Amino acid sequence: MDRVTIDPITRLEGHGKIEIFLNDDGSVANAYLQVPELRGFERFCEGRPVEELPRITPRICGVCPDAHHMASAKACDAVYHVDIPPAAKKLRELWYNAFYAGDHCTHFYILAGPDFVMGPTADPAERNILGVVGKVGLEIGKRVIRQRKEAHEVIEMLGGKPTHPVGAIPGGLSKAITEEQRQRLLQIGQGMVEFGQFSLGLFEDVVLKNEQYMDLVLSEAFTHRTYYLGLVDDNNRVNFYDGHVRVVDPDGREFASFTPPEYTDVIAEHVEPWSYLKFPFLKKVGWKGLVDGADSGVYRSAPLARLNAAEGMATPLAQEAYDKMYATFGAKPVHQTMAFHWARLIEMLYSGERVVELAQDPDITNPKVHQAPTATPDEGVGIVEAPRGLLIHHYKTDSNGIVQRANLIVGTTNNKAAICLSVKKAAEGFIKPGQEVSEGILNIVEMAFRAYDPCFGCATHALPGHMPLVVTIRDRRGEVIQEIRRDG
Amino acid sequence: MSKPKLALYWAASCGGCEISVLEVNEAILDVADFFDIVFWPVGLDFKYHHVEAMADGEVLLCMFNGAIRNEEQQHIAKLLRRKCQVMVAHGACACWGGIPALGNVANREEIFDRAYFTAPSVDNAEKTLPQTSTRVAEGELKLPVFFDTVYALDQVVPVEYYMPGCPPVVDQTVAVVQTVMSGDLPPAGSVVGAGSKTVCEECPREKHDEKKVKRFRRLHLCDDLDPTKCLLEQGVVCAGPATRSGCGGKCVSVNMPCRGCYGPAAGVTDQGTKLIAALAAVIDSTDPDEVQQIVDTIDDPLGYAYRFGMSSSSLRRVRTHG
Amino acid sequence: MAQFEPRIVAFLCRWCSYTGADLAGTSRLKYPPNVLPIRVMCSGRVDPTFVVNAFRKGADGVLICGCHPGDCHYNEGNYNMMRRFPLVRKLLAQFGVEPERVRLEWVSASEGDRYAEVVAEFTDEIRKLGPLEWAPMMAPPPVQTAESVVTAK
Ligand code: SF4
Ligand code: SF4
Ligand code: SF4
Ligand code: FES
Prior knowledge:
The structure holds 3 protein chains of 3 kinds. By secondary structure, chain A is α+β, with helices and mostly antiparallel strands.
């Protein structure tokens, strides 16, 4: 049996690698996403004072440290049974939404955007942010940089450090903001709303109005009928920071709904010997292997899943965009993986709107941003939506608040099974018996996983001509029979 | 003339060091202009065999972030060492193990036990563990061997420069790369991209060097800390006195104690024991029993002392049996 | 099996304790030969780093001796050591080193007999605890064989 190895793919909670096995006739037998790394956070969080975990766990991922910081701080609040002051809650949510606006912007423009704006078959040397800038104008490049910078400005203002922030502590925040800072936050938020609107407009122009892309978006190779889950508020609208988790089945019916401490009733994790990363699945449906459909416990998480699992957006402009997306597809849930990109832009607009809403709240400058906990600490779960999926931190402590057990289900992990499925299906759509595997597989397979996990492909996309990838095809004895290389 | 070559690599790390490289969007383009970036796996381009094919010493600069937790990372560290002239341990993980090195409180077996058997969400009745080699229906899948101990980069290969921080402050990263670009290199073994004092010396809080701590306090349990005064002198454990300056006092300026991500201060060999001495120095008592009581209010000395540096601590790891 | 002979490093303040130890020697007092004495200016000079390094380099126990409280030639030195001591023990305990392997004693220049007693007792205690053997903890990573290397091409 031949195999195609893509190593590494973009970063997850560590390195990642895709192995595609071919049958003797050259058709796809199976695809495996392997994560060859484990760092053991669950174990070494034990013995640490629980308030240190918001400073330790962000080092799981330098791409979304804010998500871990928030989930961890919320788990700490739960451990101590403390209600944080309203201003602290608003500031944390504002900070988190500003982080989202920056992160989603990075993903769309630097990583995924080039595929759409330049076209998936464009010269690789042009499929990068510079190509995008060349096509849509230098202003946009500057605007992307500004959005990232301003998101960092918010994080640094509230969290102290742009990467691995420290400001959220059990009971609230370590520092309040001034009126001047509030005004700055408002200004930044307004810019984010404008840019969100612009970006959705750009998406419409270059994707929705282009038949070739829409064919790709709608193609069966990028479609999976799975369950979806996402964090929602009391009105079942998307919320990144707080709420309960809603799960819908492949027909869009509510399948389950749970509060953070109930997560183990709904989600379980399967272990495979060939990957250090576990496979979460819906407990009530069961682990049926790497298959989709209503009979398989495989679910999806992250932007499209959040929109599918919710009944709408909590801000007006994002709600408009939400309605438009579902009207375009004419169905809900939307199963087309490529719609993750559209959903991400709707979320980007929402996050800007939410920053504005919160910055307009006069109470947000209230100096009371911390409530020292008085209850005896014991156990707590904190859940947020990380940009790349549901993020769960679960801590159990002794009566002194020293961690005895920690459990972490991390964003991208949620989509691990789905990524395997998507890669397999994309490969199937592309690798045909009897035909030599051509260079195009690089783009197609990449696009399949990139829809889920933006993280790091962005890095080389930012550099001229660097988007190289190597696929090696071997025969049964491991001899290389073909190597496809794109050196950018 | 061909451009000098730059390689970046991440081992057991979070990627934050590389993110911090990207934060200076414009400057990174200068770097890309000056250097030919030959290896940067975060961007999809592993090309191990390309690196293998290079002449020894062909790469001018390798910025290596992350600790060494498994054999694949060790292998690449050795490979890159052969190929590069200047190896920079980039960030706390590469310098001294960083947060991943907290894993040295346990061994592989305990770590696997928590991750794959005893986590409350795990469904693993068959007791499956990841294997270095697995036969699946279609063929064999391999994983790298996971070590018992986490190592700093210089415990695996020689390193020219150490660049502290978790992550390093962006401007400093750029300054270091520019220094290499200028060819005016500091002596090997130097710490680059950081100050030569302690975090205390760049901390805006008032410090009196007085012994006044009758009990150590955990910051989140207090609502009465004075935001203008030294945290340590108010009984909050702060690694400032043991930690190298360079971050500008980022954490202390938002009322949070330093946890030491810039590593041992100049001239300090062991950041943790230095911190222990600093903590002892603020205890206000000459009575052994009272001192013991005060010390008992510090819950996790190891976690404070070696938050970012277990691998390079004098004792390196916790003694585990079996 | 031969009886385990502990290796003990003793940091002795030169003003009191070192003289005390000397006296024990010149008075021909009997005490176990397991101790490697290191003279320091003051017990306050014993940095916690010295203690962990002793263990790292093969010591099974570390003894620190200084002047009695109030008698330190630098006033505060022995108090400083006394404040560090429980913290060092707590840190060592987290590393899996039994706290009993470190001991702090006040021994004056005239207390040769006391020094001999302390050493005898401590040696005995460490003998009961058994060897510490820190060397394996400092071992380099396993050497890889070509076989064991798993990297994608
Ligand atoms: S030093 Fe910090 S920021 Fe850098 S890779 Fe390690 S954990 Fe991430
Ligand atoms: S101990 Fe901490 S709070 Fe005090 S001066 Fe030093 S860095 Fe600042
Ligand atoms: S204050 Fe300490 S922990 Fe915070 S960034 Fe500076 S060196 Fe790192
Ligand atoms: S001089 Fe003897 S303890 Fe200070």
